[in-house]
Amino acid sequence: MPAPNCVLLLFVISWTSAIWAADRPNIIIILADDLGFSDIGCYGGEIATPNLDRLAAEGLRFTQFYNSGRCCPTRAALLTGLYPHQVGIGTMTNKEFDLGLRGYRGFLQRNGVTIAEILKPAGYRTFMVGKWHVGKEEGMRPLDRGFEEYYGVLEGASHYFDPTPGNMLFRNRTPVKAECDNYYLTDALTDHAIRFVTEAASHDDNPFLLYVAYTAPHWPLHATPNDIEKYRGKYRAGWDDVRQQRHARMNELGMNWTLSPRMGKVPPSANQGWMGGGRAVPAWEELTEEQQENLDLRMAIYAAMVDRMDQNIGRLVGALRETGRLDNTLILFLSDNGAEAGGGALGFDQFKPPVYSEQARAQLGGLGKRIQHALAIRQVHDVRGWHFDAADRPLAGGHCAARAVDQSGGTCDRHHGYVS
Q1: φ/ψ (deg, to 5) at 386
Q2: Would you name the residues annotated as active-site residues?
Q3: Are 275 and 267 contacting, i.e. CB atoms less than 8 angstroms apart?
Q4: What are phi and psi of 383, to 5 degrees?
Q5: Range of the domain at 368
Q6: How far apart are alpha carbons 161 and 316 in whole angstroms?
Q7: Distance between CA 187 and CA 179 in Å, rounded?
Q8: Distance of CA 380 to CAs 8, 54, 62, 134, 334, Å?
């Protein structure tokens, strides 16, 4: 059948009978950044993601799921259970996106409560690592919105090997520096996630909420040489060939639908200078040998970033197993939107971004592949209701229990959506 016209996946990994037991489950939300859903193995991808594949095989995979199609709106919906416009993030964040309109304030508004603000009073420990991107000023940060521990970057993207410039990296409320010479952001986020849950397990038996918002595989394309080497040459056949191969594997996995027509041009964009809208996407054979080699490297770096994220998810699951908490943990995995289309047909080919260090820290900009399949009847704001069901958390006093599709009838100031 034709594929619905939207992008990305979510799968519920550990949905066991333990969720419905007397002990309330731990909840882990893992959010990838700009991941095409067919990148990972359990959705037909050629990138090695054995940990996600194993967890998906033991859980549920969705083939009908909508996110908000862009970074900040998806995060706002995921955190609050509301449509992003209802909490002021109709587009991106920061002061330049504050249009003075209710749906476009550029930061997460107080008329919606976050999952952390609901679960923390119910006895949950609340932790977050990674990309926040719903408001960076004082009063808008994770610790202001219900999380008790945080490590990550407040803004939309950062250097993976040294996110320190510009005070990008925070530990709770304090800007911090990269801890070691071989620092890599995806590893560091997981290190802190493991530390949070391990310390929580040693402290008490209270359940925890852990929100892991990886920046991978969002640009800049940064990966370690060993991970990159695994994928060098895998994309020399070109994006059209990769697209056909992925579609064939998806059908073998039972996701049977007709492949959409090949995109001829990058869709027009209001931000032409950055997005490069309207530029033709050439056939692979039309590119020069040098372009093909360059794009193979870009794709290899991108694949390496996804591979490394999967390795770290494996580390996190291993830590849960060691602490005896895995069997009573609900894990959800999704992405904020589909593959990055910025920069035109060949990615950010018109830019020459700075190189911050050597040691093969390639910063080559956006991925030049056009794999925009779509399995999309859940929406991202529905996710939070599953947490409340699992946590057996009643809707507390002072908060309206308004369905996300309509909060106009609410009688109190703060609202949250839920799934019945």
Answers
A1: -65, -35
A2: 71, 133
A3: no
A4: -60, -40
A5: 10-416
A6: 21
A7: 11
A8: 10, 23, 12, 16, 9
Task: Give the DSSP H/E element, type plus range, for residue 149.
Answer: strand 149-153
Asked if 221 and 364 count as a contact pair (C-beta separation under 8 A), the reply is yes
Enter the DSSP assignment of 353. Answer: P
* CB 73 within 8 Å of CB 84: yes
Query: Domain for residue 187, yes or no?
Result: yes
Q: How far is CA 373 from CA 51, 262, 346, in A?
A: 23, 10, 18
Q: Could you read off the pLDDT of 125-141 as tens digits, one per residue?
A: 999 999 999 999 899 99
272, 287 Cβ separation under 8 angstroms: no
Residue 197: half-sphere exposure toward Cβ, Cα within 13 Å: 29
Q: Specify the CATH number for the domain of residue 394.
A: 3.40.720.10
Averaged over 217-243, what is the pLDDT? 95
pLDDT in tens, 175-229: 999 888 899 999 999 999 999 999 988 888 899 999 999 999 998 999 999 999 9
Residue bearing tokens 């492949």: 259
Query: Do the domain assignments include residue 23?
Result: yes
Closest by Cα among 125, 10, 121 to 74:
10
**pLDDT band with cut points at 50, 70 and 90 for residue 399:** very low
CA distance readout (Å), 102 to 185, 259, 325: 34, 39, 41
Identify residue 200 by its one-letter amino acid code.
Answer: A
- Structural domain includes residue 364: yes
Longest CA span, the chain: 65
Establish if 270 belongs to a structural domain.
yes
Domain count of the fold of the chain:
1
Strand spans (E) along 185-288? 208-213
Average pLDDT over residues 165-171: 82
pTM above 0.85, yes or no: no
Angle at 271 between CA 266 and CA 276, to 5 degrees: 35
Beta bridge partners of 2: 258
Name beta bridge partners: 128.
Answer: 150, 211
